[in-house]
Amino acid sequence: DQQVKQNSPSLSVQEGRISILNCDYTNSMFDYFLWYKKYPAEGPTFLISISSIKDKNEDGRFTVFLNKSAKHLSLHIVPSQPGDSAVYFCAASAAGNQFYFGTGTSLTVIP
Amino acid sequence: DAGVIQSPRHEVTEMGQEVTLRCKPISGHNSLFWYRQTMMRGLELLIYFNNNVPIDDSGMPEDRFSAKMPNASFSTLKIQPSEPRDSAVYFCASSFWAINQPQHFGDGTRLSIL
C-alpha cells in the first residue's frame, strides 16, 4: 500500500520556466519530508527537506511547499535548467529514520 | 569522502541461482538500508539495520531474500533461489541513526534474472 504517491510519471518543461513536481501522502503521522534527485545509473541524492512545522523551505532555485491539511507537498524549480533533467523522488518519515518513497517523476528540461 | 559502495554494479544470472549483493556504508554511519526500485512501486524498503542489528525486515518479499550485517562496514543481500521477477535495481543507503537524517545512496546493483 503506497503511502507516498507521485501521480505524474513524467513532466517536460522549457528551460528557464518553472518546474512543479507534486507528491501526496496518506499517513497523517508523517512529519518530515524530503526530495531526492536521481540521474541514470546513479543512486538518488538528497536535494531538500521540510519539517511539518513549516510550510515552505527554500534553497537556491529549489523550494518545497507543504500543505498538511491536503497532505500534499510540491517541489518548485525556478528557473529550470537542462541539468535538472532527472527522476525526482519524494519521501516521508514519521519521527524516525525510516523513509517511505514515492514512485518518482521523470523531469525533462528542454533547452 | 567515499560514498556508499555497492558491488557488483550489474549482475546477470539464470533463474534458480544464488545472488549476493554487497554494500559498504559510509564510515561512521550506523544505519543501513536496502531498497529495491521498480517501476510500479518506486523505491521499496526491504530491510534496515541500526548498529548492525536488523530493525525492520517487513519489506523483504519472501523467504528467498535474506540480509546480514556482520560488522559496521559491510552488508549483504542474498536471494536464493533467484527468480525472473526479482529483476530490479537494488540500492543500499546509509545514514546516522537519528531522527530525520537524510540517507546517502550507493549507485545500485542492476540485477537481471533470466
Fill in the keyword field for this structure:
heterodimer, A: 111 residues, mainly beta, six-stranded mixed sheet, five-stranded antiparallel sheet, 11 strands, 0% helix, globular, B: 114 residues, seven-stranded mixed sheet, four-stranded antiparallel sheet
Overall description:
The complex is a heterodimer of chains A (111) and B (114). Helix content of chain A is 0%, strand content 54%. The model of chain A has no long low-confidence stretch (mean pLDDT 95). Chain A is mostly beta strands and 111 residues long. The radius of gyration of chain A is 13 Å and the shape is globular. Chain B contains no helices and 11 strands.
Protein chain pair with the most extensive contact, residues per chain:
A-B, 26 and 29 residues
- Report the sheet-strand fraction of chain B: over 45%
Rounded to the nearest angstrom, the radius of gyration of chain A is 13 Å
Mean pLDDT of chain B: 94
Order of helices and strands of chain B: EEEEEEEEEEE
Number of continuous helical runs of chain A: 0
Reported for the largest beta sheet of chain A, the result is: 6 strands, mixed
Report the strand count of chain B: 11
Structural class of chain A: mainly beta
